Amino acid sequence: MLQRVIGQLPAWARRDHPVLRYEMGRRPPASRGTRLLRALINVVVLGVLGLIGVMVATNFGSQPAGQNPTDALNNLVYIPLLAIQAILSVAALTQTAGTVGEEIRRQNWDNLRATPNGAELAMRARWASVFYRLRSAIGLLLFMRMVLIAAMLWDLTAFQGRYLDLLINGITPSISLAVAVMLLSFLMTAVVLLPLTAIGFDAAFGLLIAATFPGRTLNTLAQALYILVRLGLIIGLGVLARTYMEGRLVGVGDGGGWAAVAINGAVGDWGLSFLYLGRYGEIWATIPYGVFMGLALMLFSLIQAALADGVLILAVWQGQRKG
Q: Half-sphere exposure of 230 toward its Cβ, with a 13 Å CA cutoff?
């Protein structure tokens, strides 16, 4: 299965491509002690995030984590997974943002620019290497999303299999059960694609920063600004969407509420808040045309993938001008 997936990738994104192999081999293999230390740090970080998730979900132990097992599972893992997503977003940016400056300091950049497609291959290899280097965290993120999707499918069996019929009863617009199933499948696909396209966009934007600001000072400032904006969006959009759903956002119509919740799903938490059917059904009942948010996220993930490629092309063009 993995070989089939790799076979579908462009040649420059495969592990056997010489440029990507060179990029991956630039860092010497870590010693056993270093690997053990990293593993210990990862365990500690995951433990702390898990503890924070429990404290938030139970309000510091004063209440149950949820009304049912699926609700509790979503509440327990939401904050930890959101934190992992933020870490991945920052890591994707920082791993590519120094590409051009590093090669200039090694006096390699002029050679790469003079070689046909040399600069482009080097930048694309750095972009692809992000997914390989972060594969463990990305794998964990996708695995947990698949667990939440499985829990969502389990919830569909409630009420003798009529749970989805009950959720679409009285929503705007009225839709058939078949259409609801199709729209729900769009959501499930989108929440798997969004982490990949978002990380790809962050990595591509890091390359654009690298090509535009190869000097260390401006490069560091640009990275810091992007990270602040990115983290601000995660927090701000989450608060905005939650405030609206709790009915505490005054002066916002249905269109504004739809936009707030959908943009939070697309940019803020990558659809994570939609992976509990009870909460997602509440969105359908509260916001007109909220049932189409899964389709909107699916389209956004495809647009974001195209934007990542466009930013990568722009970074290559900008990098060709630096020397």
A: 26
